[in-house]
Amino acid sequence: MYTGRTYKISEFLFWTRRNLLWLLLISIIPVFCYDILGLKWLIVPWPIVAFLGTATAFVVGFKNQQTYNRTWEARDIWGMTMGMSRSWTMMCRDFIKDKDCSAEIINRHMGWITCLRYEMRSQRPWENINKSYNREYAKFYKIPEEERSLKSHMQQYISDEEYEAIISTSNPAVQIISLQGTALTDLFEQGSLENSRFLELHKYLREFTTQQIKCEKIKDFPYPRQHATVNRIFVRLFCLLLPFAMLKEFSALNELTSGIFKGHMVWFVVPFSMIISWVYTSLDQVGESTENPFEGGPNDVPISQMCLNLELDVKKIMGQSETEKPVAQNDIIIL
Asked: What is the pTM of this model?
């Protein structure tokens, strides 16, 4: 998550510079053909491009709204899970008479959070983190889940036997929830957990499962590819036709101009069509960068930092010292 006041214009231009290069090319070609080669018939009527621009603005705005909603939903889900985890820790500490069993269940829950976090950071074919303009920006930050293996992290929460048992399954996080249910049932049958408290803790397990399903819904169901494809086609088609529609308008300015610009006003099509097209391509790229809020981009939900904060809070609740140092983060970008 980018926490600065605003992106610098230099950063944004660097991120979108590839768009600027091809926009420059498709702006120069029609002007060169019109002014140098004399191909006056290349003009496209302005109303056609205006209607296309309106449709493009609509689909771009729709995509940005929907991708923002995905990111906010992901933040809401993860925030709810963090809050419930703190409550779960206090309940386990106070409800379960056997303190060793209480600590084991709390640690296993932290293992579930960790396992889910690593799953959210795993890559999907449709994600954008490996695109060239995103890889270049990745040099400014590091994804914690890529710096440390899941196994080394899980060893502080669950036994090696439990880890080997869950890691071989298709969904390890679900298996941890299952182990939690079994542990609670054993405590209830042994008389170490009262009926009402057993039911309350089991209710939380159901809620944790629900939160996991919500996370998986966002992670495993991309922004619909048909909408993303139509959006990209509309933007590129508009950018391609825009300079052709501006040729006649700027050429007409020659009659109102004197001096060195007279007869060459059509070349102003290049910068102005680039500026307008850049707005559309940048909005499209911004929407694309918001599609997948768990992939590890600079604008994603900072689940690693949220889990670190949870871990420190859990240790305080359990009366333990904070032996784990916080993950080093960029001053501006936190993950």
From this structure: 0.87
